[in-house]
Design brief:
Layout (H helix, E strand, L loop, with lengths): L1 H22 L1 E12 L3 E12 L2 H21 L7 E13 L9 E15 L5 H11 L3 E8 L3 H27 L2 E14 L23 E14 L1
Antiparallel strand pairs: 1-7, 2-4, 2-5, 3-4, 6-7
Helix pairs in contact: 2-3
């Protein structure tokens, strides 16, 4: 019984020491933001036609798609930066009929869509105008981004750590304590928004005014310090 009591006392003392160490910690979340101008754009562009014949509808969009690819090549867009991202053919019915009537076949709709990467932002407006002249009648969106997003993300992470260190030092000073060693560092997430700047069905024009704006790359880090005496 005496031996058991000694072990229990020792265990309780150890547990109290652990709890005390955990109580003397400070946890801070740091945020880092990098604002940077984009250096590339991705355009979603397509062509669609509806006619009474499925074959004719496909021929029309195929001819337009070929013309768009040739126009992009003439504009200096490399083959690696063009990709077919959608191809469809469907029957179009009039379903606004009486319940006892079969839907009326109106024709067939075909579409072909390309995803185009433009590495020179000054050329984006001209490329859009060229595509419309070649037959594009649907611009689905423009997304601006960075060729090397990892560098911006790493800079944001460094800023997040610096922000956490500044906050921790401020809190410790205000509380009259000192910071000890770092116990843990964990990333709470990072984000790089790529806003769609425009979406529209286009008529005919020479060039589209485009404003790339800036991108904000954000990182969050959670850091835990021991508090020194």
């Amino acid at each position: 019984m005496r031996l058991t009591a000694i072990i229990l006392v020792a265990w309780c003392g150890l547990g109290a020491g652990v709890a005390h160490a955990e109580d003397r910690q400070i946890t801070v979340i740091g945020e880092g933001v990098i604002t940077q101008a984009p250096d590339q754009a991705v355009i979603s562009v397509g062509v669609s036609h509806q006619t009474s014949s499925a074959q004719m509808a496909m021929e029309m969009v195929n001819d337009a798609a070929r013309a768009m690819i040739v126009a992009l090549d003439d504009a200096g867009i490399e083959a690696r930066d063009m990709q077919t991202s959608g191809l469809s053919l469907r029957a179009v019915h009039d379903r606004n009929r009486n319940g006892d009537e079969r839907p009326l076949l109106l024709g067939f709709s075909a579409s072909n869509r390309l995803t185009v990467k433009v590495r020179d932002l000054e050329a984006v407006g001209g490329v859009l105008g060229t595509l419309v002249k070649a037959g594009a009648n649907d611009i689905g969106g423009i997304t601006f981004g960075l060729r090397d997003p990892k560098r911006a993300q790493d800079d944001a992470r460094r800023n997040a750590v610096a922000d956490a260190q500044t906050k921790a030092a401020l809190y410790a000073d205000a509380a009259g304590v000192s910071l000890g060693k770092v116990v843990s560092i964990s990333e709470s997430g990072s984000a790089m928004p790529r806003p769609e700047m425009m979406r529209a069905s286009m008529a005919s024009f020479d060039a589209v005014p485009v404003a790339p704006g800036e991108l904000s790359v954000t990182a969050h880090v959670t850091m835990v310090w021991e508090l020194a005496d």
